[in-house]
UniProtKB/TrEMBL annotation:
Family to which this protein belongs: In the C-terminal section; belongs to the transposase 35 family.
Organism in which the protein naturally occurs: Streptomyces kebangsaanensis
Keyword Hydrolase part of the UniProt annotation: yes
Protein name: RNA-guided endonuclease InsQ/TnpB family protein
Domain Probable transposase IS891/IS1136/IS1341: 113-214
Molecular function GO labels: endonuclease activity
Keywords carried by this UniProt record: DNA recombination, DNA-binding, Endonuclease, Hydrolase, Nuclease, Transposition
InterPro entries assigned to the protein according to its UniProt record, in alphabetical order: Cas12f1-like_TNB, Transposase
Length: 342
């Protein structure tokens, strides 16, 4: 239990450093800055009874409390367990606090009028960032596309600059900052999506990055640099999505299934399971030669991913010992070994 809460603390702390946690001021990212961390004994906290969630913070060895402009109140009645004071390049100080919140698992969600846990399959792609098995599509925000173009331009610029020159360093710095910005936008967007998905579903199924990489890598003929860039954007999005789903599933008592073994999620007909022909990336819809059902390429893939995930889920959930809760994360590649060992 202690381990668990420590892990939560650590995750929360990581989130806070990535700009998602609670902190009084928004930090500028992608710049070097000085930081000092204060643990419980290193500061005094006095909550303001008139404005709960805000209050006076006095650092050790200081007589005066810090003059803080609160950008956001802490949950009322909580005590910060860790404090971080940073200074950015412009010389501004920021105070970030970490509070320990008790997160209760959500009640289990079942498919209406059945004992089947509600599940969702996610397909990640370049046409849509995420496609769900119910047909919902989350597009890459236009903002990200614009950033991607800018990034490509900067990278071309970088290649033209003399190695070791100051101009090259400048361009490099701009690329670093742009990456940080893209990361922020994506994290915010994915945060909303993953929260909703974890609330509405009991089992969440994703394909592993290595499988996705395998499939996309074969496509970028003739446009290697752009393909590489797309790949990087995709990888970053997928990594972030997986990271968020992992900790949210743990927090709320859900199960994340990672289908990390190759299986033809795109080519298989999700209705009759017949294997279709190889398809070019440009093909967005196709009709199954066996049963005639017309599929949206990504939705079909998401359905296959969900079904494969549920197959694995039942292998574990129905396995020994009866009545035990399904684990937070089920990985296909680890499953075989664990079933063999049992
Ligand atoms: Zn079919």
């Amino acid at each position: 239990m202690l381990q668990q809460s420590l892990r939560h603390l650590d995750q929360a702390y990581q989130r806070f450093f990535k700009g998602q946690g609670q902190y009084p001021e928004r930090k500028k990212k992608g710049r070097s800055r000085d930081a000092a961390v204060y643990v419980r004994t290193g500061f005094k906290w006095m909550e303001d009874p008139k404005r709960p969630g805000t209050g006076l913070i006095t650092l050790a060895k200081q007589s005066q409390p810090l003059d803080i402009r609160w950008s956001r109140a802490l949950p009322a009645g909580t005590v910060p367990v860790r404090l971080s004071v940073t200074r950015d390049r412009a010389g501004r100080y920021f105070v970030s606090t970490l509070v320990e919140e008790r997160i209760a698992p959500l009640p289990a969600v079942f498919v209406a009028e059945s004992r089947e846990p509600k599940a969702v399959g996610l397909d990640l792609g370049l046409a849509s960032l995420v496609t769900l098995d119910d047909g919902t599509k989350l597009d890459h925000p236009r903002l990200l596309k614009r950033y991607a173009e800018k990034l490509a331009r900067l990278q071309r610029e970088l290649h033209k600059k003399v190695k070791g020159s100051r101009n090259r360093a400048k361009v490099r710095q701009r690329i670093v900052r742009l990456y940080a910005l893209i990361g922020d936008v994506r994290r915010d967007m994915l945060d909303k999506l993953t929260t909703r998905l974890v609330r509405e579903n009991q089992v969440l199924v994703v394909e592993d990055l290595s499988v996705v990489t395998l499939l996309r890598a074969a496509r970028g003929r003739g446009r290697r640099r752009k393909a590489k860039l797309n790949q990087a954007i995709l990888d970053a999005g997928w990594g972030e999505l997986l990271r968020q789903l992992r900790y949210k599933c743990e927090w709320y008592g859900r199960t994340l299934v990672i289908v990390d073994r190759f299986f033809p999620s795109t080519r298989r007909c999700s209705t009759c399971h017949a294997k279709g022909p190889k398809m070019d990336v440009s093909v967005r819809t196709w009709a199954c030669a066996e049963c005639g059902v017309v599929h949206d390429r990504d939705v079909n893939a998401a359905v296959n991913i969900r079904d494969e995930g549920m197959r694995l889920y039942w292998l574990v959930a129905a396995g020994p010992p009866p009545g035990r809760k399904a684990p937070t994360v089920i990985r296909a590649s680890e499953l075989e070994e664990c079933l063999l060992a049992a």
